[in-house]
């Protein structure tokens, strides 16, 4: 029987203690069901390292050029009710005056 790698640090030196799997390198403990659940969660961090979640409100931290438009998204623009998606631009949102848009999480900060 092959034991799974640690979902936190990807260490191959895990061992089983009863129903728990344990990583000796980072001391992370998990059950077999948690392993699959952690892989499905999208994690996006803002410019300050705060973890973002669906429905958060963020502000833009620098002027951003909008492709296909002559206007720019100004610093300090508030974006409400974000949705996290997979890909390079990991925030999907609607911005007043611009419409639907995708942003990179590194150019926003959580309010």
TrEMBL record:
Signal peptide as annotated in the record: none
Domain of life: Bacteria
SUPFAM superfamilies documented for this protein: Prokaryotic SH3-related domain, Zinc beta-ribbon
Domain annotation Protein YjdM C-terminal: ranges: 45-110
Residue span, Protein YjdM N-terminal domain: 2-31
Gene3D superfamilies linked to this entry: 2.20.25.10, SH3 Domains
Xref: InterPro entries: YjdM, YjdM_C, YjdM_N
PANTHER family: PROTEIN YJDM, PROTEIN YJDM-RELATED
Family: Belongs to the YjdM family.
NCBIfam families with a match to the protein in the record: phnA
Protein's name according to its UniProt entry: Protein YjdM
Organism: Ureibacillus chungkukjangi
């Amino acid at each position: 029987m092959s034991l799974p790698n640690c979902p936190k640090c990807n260490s191959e030196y895990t061992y089983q203690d009863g129903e728990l799997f344990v990583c000796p390198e980072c001391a992370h403990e998990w059950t077999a069901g948690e392993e699959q659940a952690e892989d499905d969660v999208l994690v996006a961090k803002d410019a300050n390292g705060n973890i973002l979640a669906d429905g958060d409100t963020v502000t833009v931290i620098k002027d951003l050029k909008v492709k296909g438009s002559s206007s720019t998204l100004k610093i300090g623009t508030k974006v409400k009710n974000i949705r996290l998606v997979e890909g390079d631009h990991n925030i999907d949102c609607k911005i007043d005056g611009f419409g639907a848009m995708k942003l990179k999480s590194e150019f926003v900060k959580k309010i």
